Amino acid sequence: CCRKLCAPFCPGTRPGLGSTGASKLPAPLVALLLGRFKASTVKECIRAVLKEKLADVQYVPEEIPQLTKSLSEIIKDRLKEQGFERYKMVVQVVIGEQRGEGVNMAARCFWDADTDSYAHDVFMNDSLFCVVAAFGCFYY
């Protein structure tokens, strides 16, 4: 976030606000935070979309780019319906062929731990695996 604009509200930029400073924020900002990112709700939404859209899908390399884009747009639209108006949603979708091998994924983010969060879910069938991560960044 922009430190000049957010300085009065960001943890560590005002005396008395530590990592648990959300309860000491000004009343208007606390009201905005009531609609905060709920990882459990987001995970349920991701899981429902993946089950609905990938249940009978076979891995076809030529179709994967369009499928990943489509899934990310559908998930973003469903998350917007959940009432996270003050959040910028970033949805990452990775699809790979299921060959019985392992895969490791990681993500690093620079954000406000009091307001920003993420949720992820994994879907697998006999042909493919899909990993979705949804990041919610609060707009101040």
Automatic annotation (TrEMBL):
An example molecular function term from Gene Ontology annotations: dynein intermediate chain binding
Q: Which Pfam families match?
A: Tctex-1
Could you list the residue ranges forming a coiled coil in this record? none
Q: Name one GO biological process term.
A: microtubule-based movement
Which domain of life does this protein belong to? Eukaryota
A cellular component term, taken from the record's GO annotations? cytoplasm
User: Per the similarity annotation, which family is this?
Assistant: Belongs to the dynein light chain Tctex-type family.
What PANTHER family is this protein classified in? Answer: DYNEIN LIGHT CHAIN TCTEX-TYPE PROTEIN 2B (PTHR21255:SF7), T-COMPLEX-ASSOCIATED-TESTIS-EXPRESSED 1/ DYNEIN LIGHT CHAIN (PTHR21255)
Protein name in the entry = TC1D2 protein
Native species:
Pavo cristatus (Indian peafowl)
